[in-house]
Amino acid sequence: MSEAGIDSASAVRPGEALDLERLVPFLRERIDGLEGEPELSQFPSGYSNLTYLLRFGERELVLRRPPFGRTPKSGHDMHREYGVLRALRPAFPYCPEALVESDDLSILGAPFYVMERLSGIIVRHDLPPGLELGPEGVRALFDRVVEVHAELHAVDWRAAGLDGFGRPEGYVPRQIAGWSERYRQARTPDVPDFAEVIGWLEKHQPPESGRAAVIHNDFRLDNLVLDPADPLRVIGVLDWEMATIGDPLMDLGASLAYWVERDDPPALQALRLMPTHLHGAPTRAEVVAHYAACSGLDPGPFAFYLCYGLFRLAGITQQIYYRSFHGQTGDARFRRLGLVVGALEQTARRVMAEAGS
């Protein structure tokens, strides 16, 4: 297929450069085979942690660090992200190989970690040029996404050494309370207060289920790497910064917040980040059914989990928009995110209305 389908890095954005004079000696001491002068570029997508490509000849490494400016207290924990990759990789081989981490602020001014690059296709808003799947291929691709998600939830997290990585007991009420507080703290005067949505979620929380799994908390197509030789084969899962141990149906709800169907209203179409509008793509209901078949879990009435996912996505988006609103980042992509938050509130209210009281 076209090289345009391979995820690529570009020039580093102004104000987001790395100090190579401090970084490179640190890496050479800890990673074998780093020959020649380093080349630094930056992956332009993503709204949270900053991701860079470091090329030493034919060797390619990826560095992750928190964004500049104000960040949520626990939202950009490099040690945690590095740790989950190291622990999970033997049981879930889609994880990139994490190589080294550091919390020495004298190097980059922030904690960071470095991993091997997984080079492949990353599908974002639309299929890349040259990737023609047709309805059957589109369905197969999204079915595979759901299947890998279920594979993650099936990992024995205790055997992987992740006992203590999260607190599965009380996970649902803790998430509702936590995201409510984070949204209130990050709210700017030009976005809705979400009071009705928060009240509905508090009222409709399901009873404690006892379910517990490794959950990614941002599992969607553009965080997956596809094999260039077989684009229906997933070879990697990226962006583990929000992973924890919790209820897998909450993870599925978080993923479905990004799932925009071809018949959804214009406000929701404007939020689409994946080509879920194509002929052949499963609906949200079909995703839930396929996940249930793969995982053996009974999803029950799913409106609560979807509404939670929409509210949580609004909270994440608002935290990013807060930085733009207050001039803490010059990234032009962030300037209209307040409109996204408003659209997510409208969508959540529609889910609530369809579910009834």
Quick structural overview:
Helix content is 39%, strand content 13%.
Please explain how this structure is put together:
With 357 residues, the chain is of the alpha+beta class. It has eleven helices and nine strands. The strands form three sheets. It has a five-stranded antiparallel sheet with strand order 1-2-3-5-4, sandwiched between helices. A two-stranded antiparallel ribbon has the order 6-9. Strands 7-8 form a two-stranded antiparallel sheet. The longest helix is centred in the C-terminal third of the chain and has 23 residues, at 303-325. It is globular. It starts with 19 loop residues before the first helix and ends with a helix.
Overall mean confidence score, pLDDT: 91
Q: Strand order within the widest sheet? A: 1-2-3-5-4
Would you identify the CATH H-level superfamily of the largest domain?
Aminoglycoside phosphotransferase (APH), C-terminal lobe
User: Which CATH class of the largest domain applies here?
Assistant: Alpha Beta
Give the overall silhouette. globular
User: What is the number of domains?
Assistant: 2
Number of helices: 11
Low-confidence stretches: none
Q: Structural class from helices and strands?
A: alpha+beta
Major sheet characteristics: 5 strands, antiparallel
Order of helices and strands: HEEEHEHEHHHEEEEHHHHH
Work out the number of β strands: 9
CATH topology of the largest domain: Aminoglycoside 3'-phosphotransferase, Chain: A, domain 2
Measured on Cα atoms, how large is the radius of gyration? 20 Å
Helical coverage, percent range: 25-40%
What is the terminal-to-terminal distance?
A: 49 Å
Reported CATH architecture of the largest domain: Alpha-Beta Complex
Question: How much beta, percentage-wise?
Answer: 5-15%
